[in-house]
């Protein structure tokens, strides 16, 4: 986006994030993957790490580049993904969407989330903040980076992240 182009509004970012959440809740993971750029990253740091932790220096729950994210999607869509077959029922609530910065074609944004996951009669809740680097393309916004920072001391009681946050 050049300096003469229209800036991306908070409402546009919010609509994009709502659409992303809807794709995930419907288990339309291949379509969700299409929202990412070829150089994208998706990270979920461990809950005891500082906010500025880097995946190349610290252990993360998830630290995927675009290729690994694609492999994760393929695995989760297979019947052999025992942790997620049949698929969990999920519901994502996205709120407090903020545009933090805009420069050239990049939009930095933050949103809070609550992801409910129900499986085998048990409901788990994942709460946190998601930080995005979005890119303006001819096809609309795309995700260059997504980092989900969980607001919990540990993964208990669920003990795992077998869904996409």
Task: Briefly characterize the structure.
The chain is of the alpha+beta class. The protein has helices spanning 10-25, 29-33, 66-77, and strands at 36-45, 60-65, 89-103, 106-119, 122-137, 140-150. It has a 6-stranded mixed sheet with strand order 2-1-6-5-4-3.
What is the 3D shape? globular
The radius of gyration over CA amounts to 16 Å
Spans with pLDDT under 50 lasting ≥5 residues?
none
Tell me the count of domains. Answer: 1
Count of discrete alpha- or pi-helical segments spanning 4 or more residues: 3
For the record, give the distance between the C-alpha atoms at the N and C termini, rounded to a whole number: 28 Å
Give me the secondary-structure category: alpha+beta
What's the arrangement of secondary structure elements?
Blueprint: H1 10-25, H2 29-33, E1 36-45, E2 60-65, H3 66-77, E3 89-103, E4 106-119, E5 122-137, E6 140-150
Parallel strand pairs: 1-6
Antiparallel strand pairs: 1-2, 3-4, 4-5, 5-6
């Amino acid at each position: 986006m050049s300096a003469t182009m229209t800036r991306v509004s908070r409402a546009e970012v919010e609509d994009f994030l709502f659409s992303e959440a809807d794709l995930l809740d419907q288990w339309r993971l291949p379509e969700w993957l299409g929202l990412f750029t070829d150089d994208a990253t998706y990270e979920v740091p461990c809950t005891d790490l500082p906010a500025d932790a880097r995946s190349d220096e610290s252990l993360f729950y998830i630290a995927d580049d675009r290729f690994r994210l694609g492999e994760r999607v393929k695995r989760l869509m297979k019947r052999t993904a025992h942790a997620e077959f049949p698929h969990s029922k999920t519901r994502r609530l996205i709120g407090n969407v903020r545009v933090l910065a805009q420069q050239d074609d990049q939009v930095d944004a933050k949103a809070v989330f609550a992801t409910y996951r129900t499986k085998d009669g048990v409901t788990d809740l994942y709460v946190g903040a998601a930080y995005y680097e979005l890119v303006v393309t001819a096809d609309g916004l795309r995700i260059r980076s997504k980092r989900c920072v969980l607001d919990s001391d540990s993964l208990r009681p669920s003990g795992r992240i077998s869904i996409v946050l």
